[in-house]
Structures are given as structure tokens and as C-alpha cells.
Write a structure and sequence with these properties.
Elements: H1 3-7, E1 9-15, H2 21-30, E2 34-39, E3 42-48, H3 49-58, E4 64-73, H4 77-85, E5 98-105, H5 115-132, E6 139-140, E7 147-153, E8 157-163, H6 185-195, E9 202-205, H7 212-222, H8 245-257, E10 266-271, H9 274-286, E11 293-297, E12 311-315, H10 325-339, E13 344-350, E14 362-368, E15 371-379
Parallel strand pairs: 5-6, 5-7, 9-10, 9-12, 10-11, 12-13
Antiparallel strand pairs: 1-3, 1-4, 2-3, 4-8, 7-8, 13-15, 14-15
The protein binds S-adenosylmethionine.
S-adenosylmethionine binds next to helix 7.
Length: about 375
């Protein structure tokens, strides 16, 4: 790509839960995004295509990344259709590319236009554009489209974007073993952005389950791009004629070269259940970080710190199997106080969890799936 073209920026939208927007904004800035603005459940930013490709391959916190195509006033559908049809809509297609349109409305009921009406307007704009260019009309496929357009109506404007990802970015592809109560990869990554502000000597997850937390920590410790192993053709962007294969390849190559040969800190994980331990090892292997993590079977209440100092990060068990909820949290606090002096702990637990008998430095609320959870940070001394 010529120099001038490479420097041109475009507007993108990266989505994430509201509680992760700060972590996402910081991550986007570190990957070359500019003019980063927080919005409802997403972050709007500007980036060159090279930075956008970096973000698609490396963002650990974003769920999806959209390219913003056009923002138009949505007072009149005819006006909107005509404005949209004047954008280069053909650049999001290749020969035989199929598409669908997803619509979101975020405004009071009485001023809604309706998803059907909005989606029809976008479809007609695409038809007008292809008709104008004398190109064969692309086909709609609601079930397995090659490309998804995303329309957002805020009560005044309609914002048309196109999803560059296809499969959500949290699906890294390493989950061979499925734990019953896994943490979402993007949430684990957002937690590590907080837990790893100062580089620790080691990270230890003593309730590792299928290993999601420690694998996300390993990605950060190795500066490894979380989506670098995604199969060719699994980003929807690859189905569009705007896709620049050479730039994509060279960006991926640069990211591979930026990876550390050894992790910046040591990584340990354990679980009481040996089946989980085997599962976590299997997942670490699929994520290609297995040789950097020590994973073993251990009851936390019999554990000793693997290093003199470090950061303990875990997603505590919270299903009905822990009958003695209060005793569990109290014993956990006692074990930490007695055995982990000099450590920091970040514990993710249900919003309703009892006290562990230690005063947290900070408390952040998150949602893990439909469960309200809180991340409490402790200094142990
Ligand atoms: C919420 S799950 C962790 C899920 C994990 N973050 C993931 O994404 O797969 C909690 C884990 O704690 C483990 N566990 C329960 N009691 C334990 C104990 N006393 N010591 C160590 N692990 C324990 C369970 O076996 C379970 O795998």
C-alpha cells in the first residue's frame, strides 16, 4: 500500500460491556487508535487500516469491531436511502458475497422507526447502489451471511456500519475443554489490564477451572495477539473487496515479531479437580502457550505461594455446590492472610458474596454472562 493511503484514517466502533470500556479504550490507544470516544457499550475511534488490522488481531477486550460507513439523519426514509446509496457500498462485497442487516434502536418507544423499516431502507440503498453501478444484485442470507451490516438508530441519526469480525472476538478458538462456569475471555483480559498495571513476579490462579484466566494472562505476558491463530477466512472482512491481503499479512507478521520469546512474569494455575487441570492443560495447548504455564492439581486451602511475591487472580467458585458460602469466604480470607503475605489478590466473586474478612483496596462491578459479579483487589500483609 502507498504511504499516503496507509496513513488515511477511518472511523471504527469496537464493542464491549460498559464496565470494560476503560480497559478497551486504553488497549485501542496502545494499538494505534486515535480520537477514542466512549459510547454506550462501545468505543468509537479513528485508525489507519494497519492499526485496525492490529486491533482485529490483537484486541483482547473488544467483542467486535465495526467499520463506520455513514451517519445520516433518519427523519425521512427516502432521504436516508438516497444518502446511503451514495456511499461505496459495493466495497463491502466480492463476487457472490451474501449479506444480512442487523438493526438496533436505542430511543424512546414513541420515536422508534421499527427494525423492519430501517432494514428495508438499507437493503433498498444497497440495491440502488448496485443498480447504479450495473452490478449483479447481492443476495440476502439471514442464517449464514458472508457480511453483516449493522444499523443503529439513536432517535435522530442512523449509523450504518459493517462488522469486520464475523465470529465474535472472545471466541479465541482455544476452548477444547468446556468448564461448567467459564469466564468470558474478553472479561478475563479486561481484569488483567487492571491486575497487571505494575509487572508482577508471577501470576497464580488457584481456582483455574478450564484455564481461561491464566491463558489470557499468558497472552499478555508474551505480548501475543489473541486472534493470531484464527483460521484464514474467519474474519468477515476477508469477504469484502476493501480487504487488503498484503497489509493483513504484513501486520500479522509484525505482531508475531513483537512477541516475547519468554513471558514477562511466571504463570501458575491449579484446581482441586484433576479433570479441570487436564482440561486447562488441553486449552493451554490449543492456545499455544502451554510451555509457559505450570498447571497442577491442588486444594487452595492446602496451597503455598509458588513464589515469594506475586499476584493471585481468580474467578471464585460460586455455584450451589459451595454449600457453606460464609465459611468458604472466611476460610479463603484466613488462608490468604496467613500464607500469602506480600502478595496482591484480585478475586472475582458474585455480587452477593460474603466478606472474606479483608478490606478491599478497590471494588469493580462486572457481568459474567448474566451473573452480577465484583472484582475485589486486596493487598496482603
Ligand atoms: C468458577 S470456576 C473457575 C472457572 C475458570 N475461570 C474458567 O474460565 O474455566 C471455579 C473452580 O474452582 C475449583 N475449586 C472449588 N473449590 C476449590 C478448592 N478448594 N481449591 C481449588 N479449586 C477449587 C472448581 O473445581 C472450579 O473449577
Amino acid at each position: 500500500m502507498e504511504k499516503s493511503k496507509a496513513n488515511v484514517t477511518h472511523q471504527f466502533i469496537a464493542t464491549c460491556p460498559n464496565e470494560c470500556k476503560r480497559a478497551l479504550s486504553q488497549e485501542l490507544l496502545s494499538l494505534g487508535a486515535i480520537d477514542v470516544k466512549s459510547q454506550k457499550r462501545s468505543v468509537l475511534f479513528e485508525a489507519s487500516w494497519e492499526s485496525a488490522y492490529k486491533i482485529l488481531l490483537k484486541s483482547a477486550v473488544a467483542s467486535r469491531v465495526y467499520l463506520k460507513i455513514k451517519q445520516v439523519n433518519a427523519k425521512q426514509m427516502n432521504f436516508m436511502q438516497s444518502k446511503l446509496s451514495r456511499s461505496n457500498l459495493e466495497s463491502y462485497f466480492k463476487k457472490d458475497t451474501t449479506f444480512k442487516i442487523d438493526i438496533y434502536e436505542n430511543c424512546p418507544e414513541e420515536i422508534r422507526i421499527g427494525k423492519n423499516q430501517l432494514s428495508k431502507t438499507v437493503r433498498l440503498a444497497i440495491e440502488d447502489r448496485f443498480h447504479f453501478l450495473k452490478l449483479p444484485q447481492p443476495r440476502v442470507d439471514i442464517k449464514e451471511p458472508d457480511v453483516t451490516f449493522v444499523g443503529f438508530y439513536n432517535g435522530v441519526d442512523f449509523i450504518l456500519s459493517v462488522d469486520l469480525c464475523g465470529r465474535s472476538l472472545h471466541k479465541r478458538g482455544f476452548r477444547k475443554f468446556n468448564h461448567l462456569a467459564p469466564i468470558k475471555e474478553t472479561l478475563a483480559a479486561a481484569i488483567f489490564r487492571q491486575a497487571l498495571i505494575t509487572k508482577p513476579q508471577c501470576i497464580y490462579d488457584p481456582f483455574c477451572g478450564g484455564g481461561t484466566m491464566i491463558i489470557e494472562a499468558a497472552y499478555q505476558a508474551l505480548n501475543k495477539s489473541v486472534s493470531i491463530h484464527r483460521k484464514k477466512g474467519s474474519f468477515d472482512m476477508e469477504n469484502m473487496s476493501i480487504f487488503d491481503k498484503d497489509l493483513w499479512r504484513s501486520t500479522a507478521e509484525k505482531l508475531r515479531n513483537e512477541m516475547h520469546p519468554e513471558p514477562e512474569f511466571k504463570l501458575y494455575a491449579s484446581d482441586l479437580d484433576s479433570e479441570c487441570v487436564e482440561g486447562a492443560k488441553e486449552n493451554a495447548l490449543a492456545a499455544r502457550v502451554e510451555k509457559h504455564i505450570e498447571i497442577f492439581t491442588k486444594d487452595f486451602f492446602e496451597s503455598t505461594p509458588p513464589e515469594e511475591k506475586g499476584v493471585l487472580v481468580c474467578n471464585l467458585p460460586y455455584d450451589e455446590r459451595i454449600k457453606q458460602q460464609d465459611a468458604f469466604y472466611k476460610n479463603l480470607g484466613d488462608h490468604l492472610k496467613k500464607n500469602y503475605k506480600g502478595w496482591k489478590a484480585f478475586l472475582l466473586m458474585p455480587g452477593s458474596a460474603g466478606s472474606i474478612g479483608l478490606k478491599p483496596n478497590s471494588k469493580t462491578n462486572f457481568k459474567n454472562g448474566s451473573l452480577q459479579v465484583k472484582l475485589c483487589e486486596y493487598d496482603l500483609f
